[in-house]
């Protein structure tokens, strides 16, 4: 769900825990500070201190944040919910606008920025269980990656059923929250505005499934 176009004033805080942990502070789409930790499985230990650090590095107070940008995946259940909870908690405390960006879009933005002549891109990240999360893109328009297919989750050997792998460049870049913030700013300049649907993109059931209670006879 997109909102009507709203120009963002003040500062933005972007958060993503779809793979590693990434946070950034931006002003009108310009990155002021960012921290990126590629290691998965440490989101809850890092996220609070990382947010405090980027705010300090950018010399920005929490009350100055007018927009919080959350990466909504795709990603594993446990990792995604840490970042989304942090984004929602911060936005509530700061009375900031809360918007969502697909995490794979951030990778596409960075790749096209470094390779401006590229026209077809396959972005994939580790989904565990010998699968990948993926999406395909066709350049960037007005600062927003143009997604053609996805996001989806499949085994790597099955991707050729959906796209022509020979015609797509591939990248192993990581998700940067800074790029999420830049996309959200670009979206705020469009008629549709930024996406406010914070529904996480899991694409499959959680890795950890609660054990069903055993029946007790008697």
Automatic annotation (TrEMBL):
UniProt domain Gcp-like: residue ranges: 42-160
- Which biological process, per GO, is one annotated for this protein? tRNA threonylcarbamoyladenosine modification
Q: Which GO terms describe its cellular component?
A: cytosol
Q: Which InterPro entries has this protein been placed in?
A: ATPase_NBD, Gcp-like_dom, T6A_TsaB
Identify the SUPFAM superfamilies for this entry: Actin-like ATPase domain
Stored PANTHER family? TRNA N6-ADENOSINE THREONYLCARBAMOYLTRANSFERASE, TRNA THREONYLCARBAMOYLADENOSINE BIOSYNTHESIS PROTEIN TSAB
- Mind telling me what this protein is named? Unannotated protein
**UniProt organism field:** freshwater metagenome
């Amino acid at each position: 769900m997109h909102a009507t176009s709203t120009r963002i004033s003040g500062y933005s805080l972007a958060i993503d825990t779809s793979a590693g942990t990434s946070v950034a502070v931006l002003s009108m789409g310009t990155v002021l500070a960012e921290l990126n930790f590629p290691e998965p499985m440490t989101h809850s230990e890092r996220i609070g201190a990382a947010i405090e650090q980027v705010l300090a590095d950018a010399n920005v107070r929490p009350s100055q944040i007018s927009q919080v940008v959350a990466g909504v995946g795709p990603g594993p259940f446990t990792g995604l919910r840490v970042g989304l909870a942090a984004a929602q908690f911060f936005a509530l405390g700061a009375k900031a606008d809360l918007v969502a960006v697909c995490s794979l879009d951030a990778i596409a933005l960075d790749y096209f920025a470094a390779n401006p002549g590229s026209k077809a891109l396959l972005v994939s990240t580790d989904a565990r269980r010998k699968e990948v999360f993926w999406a395909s893109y066709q350049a960037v328009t007005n600062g927003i990656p143009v997604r053609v297919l996805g996001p989806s989750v499949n085994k790597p050997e099955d991707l050729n059923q959906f796209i022509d792998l020979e015609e797509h460049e591939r990248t192993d870049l990581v998700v940067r929250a800074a790029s999420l913030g830049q996309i959200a700013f670009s979206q705020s300049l469009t008629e549709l505005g930024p996406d406010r649907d914070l529904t996480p993109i899991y694409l499959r059931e959680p890795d950890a499934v609660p054990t069903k209670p055993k029946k007790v006879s008697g």
